Amino acid sequence: MKLGLIRHFKVDLKPQRTWLTGVQFDQWLQEYELAPIQAPEHEIGGQRWTLCLCSDQARAVHTASYFEAQRFVYTELLREISVAALRLGRIRLSRLRLPVSFWLILGRLFWSVGHSSQPESRVAVLRRADRVIDALLVDEACAQEGCVLIVSHGAFMKVLDRRLQRRGYEAERMRYPRNGQLFMYEMK
After folding, report:
1. pTM score > 0.70 for this model?
2. DSSP characters over 98-146
3. Nearest to 124 by CA among 76, 166, 58, 55
4. Tens digits of per-residue pLDDT, 103-128?
5. How far is the C-alpha of 118 from the C-alpha of 82, rounded, in Å?
């Protein structure tokens, strides 16, 4: 089975250039969630997929509509890893003003060490990634020379990449997946 892993196309939302409080950052995340995507900058096509497994978040669903597949499956298992403004017990960081990128970095850093301020634990995300891979291996139509496209999100793709490599799949090295960038995986 060949796997293609792609990050959704670029979201059409201007990045906040101002410093935001934690509450404003959480509101910005909601806007990002609802924003439309930009059309792809390059030609999509050529590859016909047996299955397109896609996150059920709107930006991923819209991205998947640009591809040809025999079957589409939308699942919450491929959702982005949730992030929220950092909270440290009694220390109220909601008044602290930081750029969006700092809030994101802090959220991902604290997620990686299992901090309770983040909506989803690291263990839960790893389980989700394993469930996606297990489901693909069970799907007989895919297991027999199928080509599967997975449409997901940047942070979750990095987790999925590591889990696929642990299971014996090879691909080009994924540092930071750009929007619309396709990574191809094959079993070693």
Report:
1. yes
2. B-HHHHHHHHHHHHHTT-TTSSS-HHHHHHHHHHHHHHHHH-HHHHTT-
3. 76
4. 999 999 989 998 888 899 999 999 99
5. 7
